[in-house]
């Protein structure tokens, strides 16, 4: 049992950045939120926390593993007293005919002895909508959105009733826009009617925030809901209406930030490359480039990067260490070293810089890159993140307490294409 547990929502997210995305929306909806990385092995302090999101890596792993990890997370969240459970997956319904969305949802329902759940992947402000059970990305059907070429889970069918039917032995139903238009009560009646017919999974249309609000109202009493982070933003208002949640002023309030500011970037996504260029234009002497080919030759470049960062930090100057490079440079390094080794060299170098520099007094750390963030967080031994205000959509500041540090460490973890062009400078301006 966690200390002071009074948890309203317990969420299980199938990847790390998806977990942060949901947590960010829960804060925006008015909940104080903690993200935990993996199922906690030790007691977690849940004082003044309303929602916990457990970040798993269950999106593309073997089905058995995804089910086992999700059930372990469920068990832990129930021990913390969570009133409603939320299974979070990607708003593009990332999965294959083998799973993992269907099998995980089935096993969670079974463990909860529940008969039905809803599937609400839509995230309208990000252009993900569902109509007549068909998922759109912007104005394209899912299977024509680029997602049909995804390396791990190519999405070749936009009809989610059909997609999910291949992942579960149970009947899949639909709550379409015409039903939602009649309001929450009619939607609830429709779900009950489907439940009476044995329909376990209901794909739900949603075109806008209002549809999500109706769905949140219709499903607030369900033991388990599933979907993307859009639904997450609509639920807190319903918890308040139920009297489960107080009105909380500044749910994203963190302790004052302190310590040196550092940006580490291992992302080569287009948005990140522009952010690196923007930072270097503002601080021409503020950046140090790492190159996997040089890193592979020994410690020299790493030591130079460390010396560079220490020098800049001692004069309170902004500092960026980056391996981010244009596609051609990345390809050259990958051809020479192999994709995996090139990535590993960069992740290892940035992780060890993070560990050393946090020891040396860095207290505000921004990391760019999903995989890179995972590597840094794991090297720092971080297991919980308190979610603060968002810097840009989907990317909040977070805080974690660390052994050996009196004040908490402030951390912003930005995956690939998130964030405006001035993200590397503005992030620190909005942090107080
Ligand atoms: P994103 O969120 O943009 O996809 P990730 O951190 O998830 O970023 O992935 C980027 C990957 O590319 C990481 O494994 C990183 O180590 C690797 N990488 C970074 N810079 C280079 C480079 N210059 N050459 C080769 N690989 C690189």
Number of strands: 18
How much helicity do the residues have? Answer: 25-40%
The gyration radius over C-alpha positions equals 22 Å
Ends: how far apart?
A: 33 Å
Distinct ligand kinds: adenosine-5'-diphosphate
Helix/strand class? alpha/beta
Helix count from the secondary structure assignment: 15
Average pLDDT score: 95
Unreliable residue stretches: none
- Note the overall shape: globular
Question: What would your notes on this structure say?
Answer:
By secondary structure, the chain is α/β, with parallel strands linked by helices. It contains 15 helices and 18 strands. Strands 9-10-5-11-4-1-3-2-16-17-18-15-12-14-13 form a 15-stranded mixed beta sheet, with helices on both faces. Strands 6-7-8 form a three-stranded antiparallel beta sheet, with no helix packed on it. α7 (209-219) crosses α8, α12 packs across α13 and α13 (339-359) crosses α14 (370-379). Adenosine-5'-diphosphate is lined by residues 266-269, 272, 292, 323-325, 329-330, 333-334, 342-343, 346-347, 369-372, 415-416.
């Amino acid at each position: 049992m966690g200390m002071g547990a009074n948890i309203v929502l317990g969420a299980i997210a199938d990847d790390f950045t998806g977990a942060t995305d949901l947590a960010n929306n829960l804060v925006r909806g008015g909940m104080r939120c903690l993200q935990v990385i993996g199922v906690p092995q030790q007691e977690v302090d849940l004082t003044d926390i309303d929602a916990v999101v457990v970040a798993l890596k269950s999106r593309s792993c073997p089905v058995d593993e995804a089910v086992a990890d999700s059930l372990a997370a469920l068990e832990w969240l129930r021990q913390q007293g969570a009133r409603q459970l939320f299974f979070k997956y990607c708003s593009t319904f990332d999965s294959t005919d083998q799973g993992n969305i269907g099998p995980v949802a089935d096993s969670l329902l079974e463990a909860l002895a529940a008969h039905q759940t809803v599937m609400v992947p839509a995230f309208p402000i990000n252009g993900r909508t569902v109509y007549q059970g068909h998922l759109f990305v912007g104005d394209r059907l899912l299977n024509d959105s680029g997602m049909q070429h995804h390396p791990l889970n190519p999405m070749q069918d936009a009809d989610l009733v059909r997609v999910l039917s291949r992942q579960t032995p149970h009947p899949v139903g639909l709550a379409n826009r015409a039903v939602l238009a009649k309001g929450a009560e009619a939607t609830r009646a429709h779900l009950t009617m489907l439940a009476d017919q044995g329909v376990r999974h209901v794909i739900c249309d949603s075109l806008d925030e209002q549809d999500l609000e109706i769905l949140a109202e219709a499903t607030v009493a369900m033991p388990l809901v599933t979907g993307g982070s859009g639904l997450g933003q609509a639920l807190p208002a319903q918890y308040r209406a139920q009297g489960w949640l107080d009105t909380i002023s500044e749910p994203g309030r963190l302790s004052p930030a302190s310590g040196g500011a550092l940006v580490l970037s291992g992302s080569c996504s287009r948005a990140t490359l522009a952010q690196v260029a923007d930072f270097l234009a503002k601080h021409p002497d503020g950046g140090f480039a790492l190159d996997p080919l040089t890193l592979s030759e020994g410690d020299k470049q790493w030591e130079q990067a460390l010396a560079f960062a220490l020098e800049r930090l001692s004069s309170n100057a902004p500092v960026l260490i980056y391996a981010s490079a244009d596609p051609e440079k990345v390809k050259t390094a990958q051809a020479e070293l192999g994709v995996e080794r090139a990535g590993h060299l960069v992740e290892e170098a940035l992780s060890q810089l993070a560990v050393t520099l946090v020891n040396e007094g860095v207290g505000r750390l921004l990391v760019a890159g999903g995989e890179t963030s995972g590597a840094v967080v794991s090297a720092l031994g971080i297991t919980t993140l308190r979610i603060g205000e968002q810097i840009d959509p989907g990317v909040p500041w977070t805080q974690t307490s660390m052994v050996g540090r009196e004040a908490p460490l402030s951390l912003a973890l930005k995956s690939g294409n998130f964030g405006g062009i001035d993200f590397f400078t503005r992030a620190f301006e909005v942090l107080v």
